[in-house]
Amino acid sequence: MKQLILCVLAALFLATPALAEKKDTCVSCHRDLDGEMAAPVQGMQGDVHAQYGLSCADCHGGDPTQEDMEASMDPRRGYRGAPTVEQIPEFCGTCHADAATIRKFKPGLRVDQLELYWTSVHGQQHQKGDWKVAQCVSCHGVHGILPGSDPRSPVYPTNVPRTCARCHSDAGLMAGYRIPTDQFDKYRTSVHGRPLLEKGVRGAPACNDCHGNHGAAPPGVSSVSNVCGQCHPVNSELLKQSPHQKPFEEMGVAACESCHGNHGIQRPTDDMLGAEEGSACTSCHERGSRGHQAAEAMRGAVDGLKAKRDAAEALILRAEQAGMEVSQAKFDLNEVGNALTKARASVHAFSLVKLEETVKEGEGLADGTRRKGEQAIAELQFRRKGLGVSLVIILGVAVALFFKIREMDRRRGLR
Amino acid sequence: MEAKTRSKVLDWLDERLQVQVALSFLAKKVVPLHRHSIWYYFGGMALFLFSVQVVTGILLLLYYRPTAEAAFESVQFIVTEVRFGWLIRSIHSWSANLMVAVLFVHMLSVFLLKAYRKPRELTWVTGVLLFFCVLGFGFSGYLLPWNTLAFFATKVGTELVNTVPVVGQPLLIFLRGGEDVTGATLTRFFGFHVAVLPMLTALVLALHLLMVQFQGMSVPPSMQGQEDRMKKMPFFPNFLLRDALGWLVALGLLAALAAVFPWELGVKADPFAPAPAGIKPEWYFMFMFQTLKLAPSHILFLEGEMVVFLFFGLCGLGLILVPFLDVWSRRGERSPLFTAAGILMIVYIATMTAVGYLVKVG
Amino acid sequence: MAHGEGLLNGRPAGGRRRFLNWALGGGAVGLAGSVFYPILQFVLPPRLSEAVLASVVAGKVGELAPNTGKIFKFGSKPGLLVRLPSGEYKAFSAVCSHLQCTVQYRGDLSQIWCACHNGHFNLNGEVLSGPPPAPLEAYSVAVRGDEIVVSKA
């Protein structure tokens, strides 16, 4: 009898979890359907919302405890169905724009995305009834949304450019908007795109770093300098105080972009500076103008410093490979390299006087380094003198030996 | 006064070690004077240069570190921080090359003068073994500075071992201390260079020198009949003083080379960098290397490189066995075939070495 | 044998022979000296006792005030020694991982900063903002007596 009671209790105990399991008929029904109808179930398995215990009904409404299809998808039980494109932003915003709700799940998450979206070009077009533009689902996906920090997410920094390019590189889709569709192609060859896309360097900017995320819009002409200045503050500051600032403002020229481009920015070279064909300066400054002459002089100054640096480096390398001690000289050479970088940055002040100050400092350092290299080479020469001395001794002994040999030979009657 | 001290010391030693027997034997050592006597100097010169290597090598050993992380830096340290380190290092590198050159002359002159004839067969055999030891010294030592040149020369050099059938692959792994040339190879080569080879060389050299003392200097076959009538020079002190003069000149030459053409440090080896164009082995391996490069990909049904390798292996074996192969010299007859072979060897080596440096092949 | 030539019994006169012996002996001593002197100098250890620069004295105790930093030479590259507000020391390679400018310590930010392109690093050498793609290599610091010794970690 006791055993029977124990068995029954054990069975109940084991069955309780099964009885207590939440019933989700959305999942159990749709799982067994075909294609498009079953896809949401598979997607949701990895979805970030599912990890917080949220399921179909939490967004779509309805009653997941009902076995009957009509009962579970009954509008009277709150069923909202799949939102239309027009409804999507507000649909997601029901939770994501409500601080109190989000605080329950992830307090650190922002809740201003919807607000920002309405200020963006996408948002404004959406309000005008353009359903082709991006809304939440276009970038984040729908069933199977991953947090932005997950490398598989389409909005993870290294994936952002491709996500934007899905629409912005599609000439057919973009027809009628009068903006180019080559941004991604240009970006991926650029000095920003290559580290991000090819090496996963997170410090490199993606589309959102310059255009904004949810509030995405191209920066205004006057704000380009500030946008670039987020990472390049030295150049931006110098530019704002330079003689270029006012003319750019008056002519409505986007400061940094006018020389460096926007999407296809390449690593700047010294060739961008100067009076040669193809330089950035000659695109505005005509031959004979003051600007033209200044450009030529500035290029000359930078070239001069570079040449001195290269000469010192070659000399030190030669000495090192010959086996001379040059670590101090190499240390100083780092400083010359720094000076050259500073000089190139200070070009953005567009003032020959300021540039020449920086260049002069660098040239002083380069001269000192070169002297150290020359000393090292001279030491090599000095050894030859020491050699001369020892050779004299050897010669002396050899001569004495020669005569000794002759004497020995005579003694033995060999001569 | 000094004569009395000298004889006192000798008596003391003689009572214990019978040194007088050896000394009086050596005092009688003579060197025959004839047209080809000049070649007698080269053995002693090689010995002198070898001693220079031992001394400078031991000195370098005080500072050198045989690991991939520190080898290059330690050589740099020797050359830049240690007083006269540049001199010791450059002398070691130059003397190595001079020694190999002198050894080529010594070996080839002995060959052409047929000094390997009875009773000097074993002297020849030990000599050839010494030659192989020295080549081993050269190959193992070359890697030790761990610069790009050394690294890739070793890579290419050891790679060739692979072409030997059956034992090639295990031999390669034994030499390299693994599949590739790594720090393990460096440590291994270091062990060969400073312990294994010196010990082997010391033993074989002792035998070689002992035999030379016992058997005296050989004269060329054509002059054998006149040997008794030839002028003889006592080794002590006349020939030895001449030897010393030669050694003195060599020392001066080494010092000059070290100061005027110091041995470069190069760039630290980077195993992951691509091989630089035009890797060459040291000049004394060039003729073998060049032959391999010129070998067709297949000879009959065998791989070209393997055939060349085996050919050189056979040559090496043949070289050791020369005294036994040259039946004409054994019978006391003239041996023009072997003279021709010797000259052919010289011409081949010289030509291939020149081609290796002058002609861009492949 | 002619006396006129200074020969006596087939040998050069004693004086000449003695001179020759002295010349040879003296020369040999000179030669020995010029061989043994370099060897002796070689075996005496140089000032810098180790080949691979594993550690360096970056400064003296008391040289740096709290919340300041200084650049020191580590081999041929610059290093940065920082004294935290708490008084303890940290050291890093001062070569910025972006374009190899020399970084500096900013006491006002309690961060390491690169002036070239506004790269910011925290006191673990990790990148906080700006273009540097990799953290600064950290060195280990030990205080020995009154010297601050920095070595590769």
Structural category of chain B: mainly alpha
In the sheet with the most strands of chain B, the strands line up as: 1-2
Beta-strand content estimate of chain B: under 5%
The radius of gyration over CA of chain B amounts to 23 Å
Question: In one word, what is the shape of chain A?
Answer: elongated
Count of beta strands of chain B:
4
H-E order of chain B: HHEHHHHHHHEHHEEHHH
Q: Helix tally of chain B?
A: 14
Mean pLDDT of chain B: 90
- Total strand count of chain A, please? 0
Uncertain runs of chain A are none
- What is the CA-CA span between the terminal residues of chain B? 72 Å
- Main beta-sheet annotation of chain A: none
Global outline of chain B: globular
Terminal Cα span of chain A = 134 Å
Mean of all residue-level pLDDT scores of chain A: 87
Category from helices, strands and their pairing of chain A:
mainly alpha
Description:
- The complex is a heterotrimer of chains A (415), B (362) and C (153).
- Chain A is an all-alpha fold and 415 residues long.
- Among the domains of chain A are: 68 residues, no CATH class; 37 residues, no CATH class; 99 residues.
- Chain A contains 23 helices and no strands.
- In chain A, helix 9 crosses helix 10, helix 21 packs antiparallel against helix 22 and helix 21 runs parallel beside helix 23.
- The mean pLDDT of chain A is 87.
- Chain B is built from 14 helices and four strands.
- Chain B has a two-stranded antiparallel ribbon with strand order 1-2.
- The termini of chain B are far apart.
- The longest helix of chain B is centred in the middle third of the chain and has 33 residues.
- In chain B, helix 4 packs across helix 5.
- By secondary structure, chain B is mainly alpha-helical.
- With 153 residues, chain C is an alpha+beta fold.
- Helix content of chain C is 20%, strand content 36%.
- Chain C is built from one helix and twelve strands, in the order ββαββββββββββ.
- In chain C, the strands form three sheets. Chain C has a six-stranded antiparallel sheet with strand order 3-12-11-6-5-4, with no helix packed on it.
- In chain C, strand 8 and strand 9 form a beta hairpin.
- Chain C is elongated.
- Chain C starts with 6 loop residues before the first strand and ends with a strand.
- The N terminus of chain C is likely disordered.
- At the A-B interface, helix 21 and helix 23 of A face helix 4, helix 5 and helix 10 of B.
